[in-house]
């Protein structure tokens, strides 16, 4: 898989994509992540990538020409399955979306900044818009890192135990059950006896019950979908 992330602030993406699971996946050639600096396509001697919006609204907007030229250059080199704009008004990121995108070959993630991007890019080049929640952050870089992480960890070989991702929250529509590790008792707090029983059938039944109860308590709206 290859992921190209277009940004005018590439420094924001250096650390999140260089360590832990994503960093190991890159090192093991499971994924290529290329940070594309939009300012290299900026206009004029100052390499401008933003301008004031028509209509007099406050805030700067990423211009159509630099974004258009960069995306066209990338598309001239390979075919892309999706051009995704990280937008607060896009579809809310879910595990199902991450699962779907993990099966793709080439993705472009476009990070807005300031007041966003020229609408013509959204209308003519963007194929999908994704949001990480109903709130606004300073730019699309952190949302892009979150999306990339959620995709890469699903790639075969990215996790040391590939079955781990299958038991994550939301994979089956429910929250995951509580987890414990050694010691079996600490400060008078005990691990549930069933987890120490060595009986896989009883443990699985307990985990299923806990997932259902935790979802009912913490995220009851998920039960409607489940």
Into how many domains do the coordinates divide?
Answer: 2
Quaternary status: single chain
What is the CATH C-level name of the largest domain?
A: Alpha Beta
Largest sheet data: 5 strands, parallel
What is the fold named in CATH at topology level of the largest domain? Alpha/beta knot
Strand order of the largest sheet: 2-1-6-5-7
Instruction: Kindly report the name of the CATH homologous superfamily of the largest domain.
Output: SPOUT methyltransferase, trefoil knot domain
Strand-helix topology:
Layout (H helix, E strand, L loop, with lengths): L1 E6 L3 H4 L5 H8 L4 E6 L12 E3 L7 E3 L1 H14 L4 E11 L2 H7 L4 E6 L7 H6 L3 E4 L9 H12 L32 E2 L2 E2 L9 H19 L2 H5 L1
Parallel strand pairs: 1-2, 1-6, 5-6, 5-7
Antiparallel strand pairs: 3-4, 8-9
């Amino acid at each position: 898989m290859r992921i190209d992330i277009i940004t005018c602030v590439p420094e924001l993406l250096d650390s999140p994509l260089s360590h832990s699971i994503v960093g190991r996946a890159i090192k093991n050639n499971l994924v290529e992540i290329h940070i594309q600096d939009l300012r290299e396509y900026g206009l004029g001697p100052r390499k401008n990538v933003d301008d004031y919006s028509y209509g007099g609204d406050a805030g700067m907007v990423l211009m159509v020409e630099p974004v258009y030229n960069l995306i066209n250059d990338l598309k001239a080199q390979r075919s892309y399955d999706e051009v995704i704009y990280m937008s607060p008004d896009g579809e809310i990121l879910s595990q199902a979306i991450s699962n779907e995108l993990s099966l793709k070959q080439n993705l472009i993630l476009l990070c807005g900044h300031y007041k966003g991007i020229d609408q013509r890019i959204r209308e003519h080049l963007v194929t999908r818009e994704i949001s990480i929640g109903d709130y606004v952050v300073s730019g699309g870089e952190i949302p892009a890192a979150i999306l990339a992480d959620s995709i890469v960890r699903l790639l075969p070989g990215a996790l040391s135990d590939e079955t781990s991702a299958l038991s994550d929250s939301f994979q089956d529509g429910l929250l995951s059950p509580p987890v414990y590790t050694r010691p079996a008792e600490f400060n008078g707090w005990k691990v549930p006896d069933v987890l120490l029983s060595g009986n896989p059938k009883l443990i699985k039944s307990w985990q299923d019950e806990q997932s259902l109860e935790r979802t009912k308590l913490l995220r009851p709206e998920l039960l409607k979908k489940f």
